[in-house]
TrEMBL record:
Residues 84-98 have a biased composition (Basic and acidic residues). Its main location: membrane. This is Protein-glutamine gamma-glutamyltransferase K. Catalyzes the cross-linking of proteins and the conjugation of polyamines to proteins. Responsible for cross-linking epidermal proteins during formation of the stratum corneum. Involved in cell proliferation. It is a lipid-anchor. PROSITE patterns: TRANSGLUTAMINASES. Its EC number is 2.3.2.13.
Length: 786
């Protein structure tokens, strides 16, 4: 119609980054064209108006309007106006046209190109194909084209994602994604970031604990309140993976070089042979190869695991451990140690996971013949890396196989020192290959996240199924075999003592000899960034024959089937604990704790406490040890000693991560009684509070102010400091950039605002600085009516 103009202005921010793209205004001028217009039936005009993308005019000469698009910078915020409906009367009794065009989706573009923004930013551009493959906890983009311009003031839209055969909202398998004005972390939501004519661009958030797998997408639109919604089912699917780049994801790995190695590297080295003659073979993991991602998702489907459980990497790794071997569940590989492989492929002939996984998938889950430990491990590495879980193949030389949960490797002889074959079920393998995978363990006590051992080779059943792990490597090292999953079995593989037993005339057995260094040597994996071998034995066990190693072995064995194999302590009369004075150590100063050792006996006691302090993520994952000490302690009868323990600022200043948490581990043995002492204490370095002082009378509609004071506790300059200030009913949230703050310097900021709501209000402020986190403050302000 003459003079009609459609104006669309989009917001000035794209995604979470304000100002990332210059705003534009789209002006669409629609005016009548001179000359005689061609007659068109009302039915056709009605159909063209309902679905213009399906009913295009065949000849430009028949157009009765011209479209003119002008791009200018907007003078005001986003406003969407729609043209008035065509009120022309039907001619010759033809059907009356609909007064308002119902909104419907013409097309959804998931922007899934391998070279596009989504795939590159999500580190999924190496995967074969052009599907949208994304990682949870991270924003992605998509575009939707409608049959007419989308009007935020009158149109409604939502996205829905569904995974599994029976999607349920409460299980996280049916996700309803609302349209919001501003995006926040840790939730499903979408925001319009661009709008051009009939097309909108969306930024979509997902939480870091979202269920992984294949999702179907639908878009639901509605124009009027009572109008029946229109549902568009996208032909494109979305694949969601774990995200080692996202701090909130339980598989987060805080080292880019390690992420490149343990997630993105599609080839590796697997070690074999003997500890004195270590061999290496190259293995093609091929996690990005054509068909491999589909095969990995197929394995999850065949496992019978409920889709709602796929958000937890602990559960998924346990399922993968079972599904890579064939017993119980028709998994990927059949194990064969007979030397007869004529009806399959010799385990030594494989050098890649790709053919194995593709064959399993294409045959609809017929197990592939044959595999041994290095093949099971290579395939497991492929599947875990493909799903986004950092993983590596690990080889243990002189690897024990404990069959009776004694946590020892037992060898039995008769009265004449002849082996009793039917009792000698434990064995020692020249080498055995399993996997490490990286994740937090919120199901375990703090300090047990990080590397977890998982073994897909079918050796012993766990809860009725051939699987093993994930078992915390830190727990294995300490002998904490009571922590799940299958920690006793892996502990015995790397650190069991070899015990020799002789049968006596009465039929009982006595211990005649023990080897303490026979098991678990040269534990190996490929080094990060090179083809060299990295020895990681120190991660699995303390140095052989050290007091810490002996304590771990004896601690573990007390939870085994032969708990009395090592002599019990004559007494347990020494206690050790760690005390934190007041509110605890402060950031920027030496951290000081007190170790209290008390002798509750009437005899003197002597011990040496081995102390180690390590930086810890809030997820319980230990980053690295930053200080170790040996502390000799001599106690008189009934004496209590308090030992001062100090961690100098210089030793931790460049080591901390968010939350500034550390874990102090103490262990030792009492010389006189052989009592084992152990203690773990988690503490954090307290950061200063922001001091907020209200100034003036707090009255609705009357300007007042507040003073915010911050003192840098560190003897170093803080870079790029900013304050974030907000108060509901007081003022909108905003950022105040301060810049650099000198060592021990004080900054004072005065905020001016006008309260809008009466009652108790809170003015909240926080510090934004990479070098110093968790600094915040709050002030209660009682606002009176005017």
């Amino acid at each position: 119609m003459p003079g009609e103009r459609l104006t669309i202005r989009n917001p000035s921010e794209v995604g979470r980054f304000p100002g990332a793209a210059a705003p534009t205004k789209v002006e669409l001028t629609i005016q009548s064209e001179g000359g005689k217009k061609q007659e068109e039936g009302a039915c056709r005009r009605w159909f063209r108006k309902i679905c213009p993308c399906c009913c295009k005019r065949q000849n430009s000469a028949s157009y009765d309007v011209t479209d003119k698009v002008e791009f200018t910078k907007p003078p005001a915020p986003a406003v969407v106006t729609t043209p008035e409906p065509d009120k022309s009367k039907p001619e010759n009794g033809e059907m009356k046209e609909t007064e308002e065009v119902k909104l419907s989706v013409c097309m959804v573009d998931l922007l899934s190109s391998k070279t596009g923004q989504n795939r590159v930013e999500h580190h999924t551009d190496l995967y074969h194909g052009d599907e949208l493959i994304i990682r949870r906890g991270q924003m992605f983009q998509m575009e939707i084209e409608f049959n007419r311009p989308f009007g935020a003031d009158m149109d409604k839209m939502r996205l829905e994602l569904k995974t599994g055969s029976l999607p349920i909202v409460s299980k996280g398998t049916h996700v309803i994604i609302p349209l919001v004005d501003s995006l926040e972390d840790e939730r499903w939501e979408a925001k319009i970031t661009e709008q051009t004519c009939n097309k909108i661009r969306l930024s979509v958030n997902s939480p870091a604990d979202a269920v992984i797998g294949l999702y179907g997408l639908t878009v639901t639109t509605q124009s009027a309140k009572d109008e029946k919604p229109t549902v568009y089912n996208s032909s494109e699917n979305i694949i969601m993976l774990y995200n080692p780049w996202c701090e909130e994801d339980n598989v987060f790995l805080d080292d880019e070089e390690q992420r490149k190695e343990y997630v993105l590297n599609d080839t590796g080295r697997i070690y074999y042979g003997t500890e004195k003659q270590i061999g290496a073979r190259t293995w093609n993991f091929g996690q990005f190869h054509e068909g491999i991602l589909e095969a990995c998702l197929f394995i999850l489907e065949k496992s019978g695991m409920p889709p709602s459980g796929r958000g937890d990497p602990v559960n998924v790794v346990r399922v993968i451990s079972a599904m890579i071997n064939a017993p119980d569940d028709y998994g990927v590989l059949v194990g064969n140690w007979s030397g007869k492989y004529s009806d399959g492929v010799s385990p030594a002939a494989w050098s890649s996971s790709v053919e194995i996984l593709r064959k399993y998938h294409s045959s609809n889950a017929i197990p592939v013949k044959y595999g041994q430990c290095w093949v099971f491990s290579g395939v497991t590495t492929t599947v875990l890396r493909c799903l986004g879980i950092p993983a590596r193949s690990v080889t243990n030389f002189q690897s024990a196989h404990d069959t009776d949960v004694s946590l020892t490797t037992d060898v039995y002889f008769d009265e004449n020192m002849q082996p009793i074959d039917f009792l000698n079920n434990d064995s020692v393998w020249n080498f055995h290959v399993w996997n490490d995978c990286w994740m937090a363990r919120p199901d375990l006590p703090p300090g047990h996240g990080g590397w977890q051992a998982v073994d897909s080779t079918p050796q012993e059943t766990s809860q009725g199924t051939f699987r093993c792990g994930p078992a915390s490597v830190n727990a294995i090292r300490s002998g904490h075999v009571y922590l799940k999953h299958d920690t006793p079995f892996v502990f015995a593989e790397v650190n069991s003592d070899k015990i020799y037993w002789q049968r006596k005339l009465d039929g009982t057995f006595c211990q005649v000899y023990s080897e303490k260094k026979a098991i678990g040597h040269c534990i190996s994996t490929k080094a990060v960034g090179s083809d060299e071998r990295a020895d990681i034995t120190h991660l699995y066990k303390h140095p052989e024959d050290s007091e810490e190693e002996r304590i771990a072995v004896e601690t573990a064995c007390r939870y085994g089937s032969k708990p009395d194999i090592y002599s019990a302590p004559a007494a347990e009369d020494v206690k050790v604990e760690v005390k934190i004075d007041g509110e605890g150590p402060r950031m920027g100063s030496d951290a000081k704790l007190s170790i209290v050792v008390k002798n509750q006996s009437s005899q003197p006691r002597q011990t040496t406490l081995h102390s180690q302090v390590a930086v810890m993520y809030y997820t319980g994952v230990l980053k690295n040890a930053i200080k170790k000490d040996n502390i000799p302690v001599d106690l008189l009868p009934n004496e209590e000693k308090t030992l001062d323990w100090v961690l100098p600022y210089q030793q931790y200043q460049n080591q901390l991560v968010d939350q500034a948490a550390l874990m102090l581990t103490l262990s030792g043995r009492v010389s006189e009684t052989k009592q084992v002492l152990a203690n773990q204490t988690t503490f954090r370095l307290r950061t200063p509070d922001l001091q907020i002082t209200p100034l003036g009378e707090a009255v609705v509609g009357k300007e007042m102010s507040a003073k915010i004071t911050f003192t840098n506790p560190l003897p170093r300059v803080l870079k790029n400091v900013a304050f974030r200030v907000e108060g509901l009913g007081l003022q909108k949230g905003h950022e105040v950039v301060v810049g650099d703050v000198g060592a021990k310097a004080t900054v004072t900021l005065t905020e001016h605002f006008i309260p809008t709501q009466p009652g108790l209000r809170k003015l909240v402020a926080s510090l934004d600085c990479k070098q110093l986190t968790q600094v915040h403050g709050v002030a209660d302000i009682i606002v009176c009516e005017q």
